[in-house]
Design a protein that fits this description.
PPR_At4g14850-like_plant, Pentatricopeptide repeat-containing protein
Length: 181
């Protein structure tokens, strides 16, 4: 059993890893423990792992991640990993909070999500967040793949698109031109 003080020790982490399918309250407990033990980055990593396992955060999750920001602000040296973790955590929290309020994402939202995922190298997240695919979101993913040099992935998406427009073609042509192909 996890100890009553929300501090993530090696024992509590070991116990957590023994659970096949941790519930949201257990994830929240672990995230809170990471934050309170000033393991800000590990709290965000846990949040990422929780999302990868198909669970969305709730209000408590977001409160604990908000505490992470306080810890982040107090960190002496902030490196690329800590900044990327903060950006990723906030973008996921904001998107989940928006969906929890039943606000439907539009094309602009999806483009921003794709760009954030591309910037952070979190391409697997873009599919989780794509609740409604339209030509704008397809184009954003193609442009992201092309700009990062993955023309095979860009071409695959382009071929799978139900409808193409001028921007779709421009993304592909620009991608090939930038790769000297």
């Amino acid at each position: 059993m996890l100890c009553s003080v929300p501090n993530v020790s090696a024992q509590s982490h070991f116990a957590f890893n023994q659970i096949d399918r941790p519930t949201l309250p257990i994830w929240n407990y672990m995230i809170r423990g990471r934050v309170q033990s000033e393991s800000f980055i590990h709290a965000l990593y846990m949040f990422d792992e929780m999302r990868e396992r198909g669970l969305r955060g709730d209000n408590l999750t977001f409160i604990f991640l908000g505490l992470s920001r306080k810890v982040f602000d107090e960190m002496g040296m902030k490196d690329l990993v800590s900044w990327n973790s903060l950006i990723c955590g906030y973008s996921q929290c904001a998107f989940d909070a928006m969906r929890a309020e039943n606000v439907k994402a539009d094309a602009v939202t999806m483009v921003k999500v794709v760009l954030a995922c591309r910037y952070l190298g979190q391409w697997n997240l873009r599919i989780l967040w794509m609740t409604e695919m339209n030509v704008v979101s397809w184009n954003a993913m193609i442009a992201g793949d092309a700009k990062s040099g993955d023309l095979v992935a860009a071409k695959k998406l382009f071929d799978e698109m139900p409808t193409r427009d001028v921007i779709s073609w421009t993304c592909m042509i620009t991608g090939y031109a930038q790769a000297n192909q």
